[in-house]
Description:
It contains one helix and 14 strands. It is mainly β and about 240 residues long. Keywords: Signal. This is DOMON domain-containing protein.
Amino acid sequence: MFVNLKTIMMTMAITVILTEGELLMNRDGCGKTKACLFKPVGCNPNLDCTIGLIFFVVGPNQLRIEMVATSLIPSVQQQYVAIGYVKISCLHCSQFNLGSSAFQGDDFVTECVMSNMGEFSGSEPEVFVSYNHGKSNDRIFLNDHEHRTLISNISSHVIDGRLVCHFTQQIIPQIDRKNGLIGDLDKDFFIMGATGSAQPDGLRTFSDHGVHVVILLARFLQVASYIIVDLLEMYVTV
Length: 238
């Protein structure tokens, strides 16, 4: 998917919220003011989606990201739901038959890691940034100040076999770029959603069994203070 999110720079603080009530994902505005990815197509993100992403601009330099995934079977101690910003440059990508093999390398990733079992059960959600190098995924170290600046307003919910995570991320990061591993989101990207088993230092890669991937091809157009999403095509891989 292509993304173009040009906004005013702003530094934010992080607030972690563990909600006792249910976190809902609102589909209103999908394809207009929001970008939405759902697998299977047409599923209800509050009920039966294997994986779903909704993201939209909520203020100057603020991208709100809402993610949901079905708990893996068999269960794992830690499961992630991730959004990947995939660097693919082409003029007519919507004409290509893209599969997961086209999205394995040089991708900036933000993932939310949660658990409802084992020693991690009931722990706070953790939001990390990472980078795909080929078929491997490596966490990018952020100190507390950098993390609070880049990611804010985290909330999560695990119930009825669904893992839900919401957070806000800076579009133009106001932190060290870690030798180019962390980039601006006001550029053209394909957007990819994924869920799978989390490891202590990163994610299982897309070549691993049990990783579910959704790929959306769309273009963001900013008109004044509104974001219009031009949905071009969706690709789903497992």
